[in-house]
Amino acid sequence: MSLQKLMAPRVGVAMLGIVGLADVANAATATTTFQVQMQITASCIINSAGNLTFPSTGVIAANVDATSNLSVQCTNTTPYNISLDAGTGSGATIAARKMTNSGNTVTYSLYSDSGRTTLWGDVIGTNTVASAGTGAAQIFTIYGRVPPQTTPAPATYTDTINVTVTY
Hints:
Distance between the termini: 94 Å
Structural class: alpha+beta
Oligomer: single chain
CATH topology: Immunoglobulin-like
Largest sheet: 5 strands, antiparallel
CATH architecture: Sandwich
Mean pLDDT: 91
Order of helices and strands: HEEEEEEEE
CATH superfamily: Fimbrial-type adhesion domain
Helix content: 10-25%
Shape: elongated
Strand order of the largest sheet: 1-2-7-5-4
């Protein structure tokens, strides 16, 4: 067998490899770009509103104080106001909210400051708490006080306050 016949198949295989490399080297590409976007709109959520539970007491002869926390989260730079209504107690006002039980009441107030001098109410620009969103949860303390008053019958007294965030 001649050397030429032995080498012919190998030369053919080698040529196929070179042709394959030539195709990759001459390959064409196309590129483009696309946009990724998301619109953030001004919004707020109330993450939580903790119950305000006054400690048990007998005769209400001195102030009884308690606090709770409210967590609000608004988009960054969004201005907002937090309002607290007068509650569901019959005859309640912002200054004199009413916890009730079987027609009996315990009067209390809610404040936005630790000194309990600024009533927290529901009139924007007057007695609400204003802030601006940071994008993260912001915690606000609600300061409650039951002032000295005629003590009603022993029982558990309750009220429900509506929290509103206006933005």
